[in-house]
Amino acid sequence: MSRTRTRYAPDRGLTGRMVTTMFLIGLLYVVLVGVLIAALSGSWPIILVITGGIFIAQFWFSDRIAAFSMGAKEVTPEQEPELHGAIDRICALADMEKPRVAIARSDVPNAFATGRSERTALVCATTGLMRRLEPEELEGVLAHEMSHVAHRDVAVMTIASFLGVLAGIITRVALWGGLARNNRSNDPVGVALMLIPLVSAVVYALSFLLTRLLSRYRELSADRTAALLTGRPSALASALTKVDGQLARIPTEDLRKAEPYNAFYFMPAFSSKQSLGRLLSSHPTLEQRLEQLARISADLSRP
């Protein structure tokens, strides 16, 4: 059985936001399914089975799919002693179970965590990150990722992001169905299929906004609790600065491949400094993160 408490500082603000996000996401999910049932009343058993099955599959397998998509390969202590050693030290500090440890063969310097709980958690660092960071900096990044596991916000983000994916699929299917019936405007089913994309688009926009607001806060929370746990906010600040600078030197093609997984990463990868993605980023700005760490460093240095 996995532990329910660790030495990571609790964050009531994060807990409150996660509960609120899950409630609102659940409400949106009910609305979306309700619209589908109302529009296609004769097929409601199939709709419930399909949407319920997709939701359950997403909950159980999404973390594995994400890890596979990002190229994570589990490694043993013999294969990666430095990475395992850093995670062992963090586990001892935090009094938590050791997650599975993985490496992604990528020059993009980054790290991420997946998993529904401590028992199923996986923490992964890229080869590009390990090559560029000093041991204390790497430990700060890994402590940040393990904070996501300890606070269980990885699981919440996985579930919350699913509704947007489902709404996008429904929008495409409904648009195809509506276009197929465009010459039958008096058909009630055809009218319903034309309305579904609008509802789905609204649901997608709201779920996207909710997950972005939660994600930005959870990144600041992970920075804060990792810095307090290790007692070295300067090491994490140094890692943030170094990774941000190194990302600017990564080929655009590699960054574009990484962009879809930014919500999972320690630092978002953008193919352009002017990218619209920065305005809708899942992470706070580098300046916000460094300012918070500077405040923590000042507080820890006081007698």
Automatic annotation (TrEMBL):
GO MF annotation terms: metalloendopeptidase activity; zinc ion binding
Transmembrane segments: 21-38, 44-61, 154-177, 189-210
Compartments (UniProt record): Cell membrane
UniProtKB keywords: Cell membrane, Hydrolase, Membrane, Metal-binding, Metalloprotease, Protease, Transmembrane, Transmembrane helix, Zinc
GO biological process per UniProt: proteolysis
EC number per UniProt: 3.4.24.-
Domain Peptidase M48: 77-295
Membrane topology: Multi-pass membrane protein
Pfam families in UniProt: Peptidase_M48 (PF01435)
Cofactor binding note: Binds 1 zinc ion per subunit.
Cofactor dependency: Zn(2+)
UniProt binding sites for Zn(2+): 144, 148, 219
Active site feature: 145
Gene Ontology CC terms, in alphabetical order: plasma membrane
InterPro entries: HtpX_protease (IPR050083), Pept_M48_protease_HtpX (IPR022919), Peptidase_M48 (IPR001915)
Top-rank taxon: Bacteria
Record family assignment: Belongs to the peptidase M48B family.
PANTHER family referenced in this protein's UniProt entry, alphabetically: PROTEASE HTPX, PROTEASE HTPX HOMOLOG
UniProt cross-references to NCBIfam families, sorted A to Z: PRK02391.1 (NF002669)
Listed HAMAP family: Pept_M48_protease_HtpX
Listed name of the protein: Protease HtpX homolog
Gene that this polypeptide is encoded by: htpX
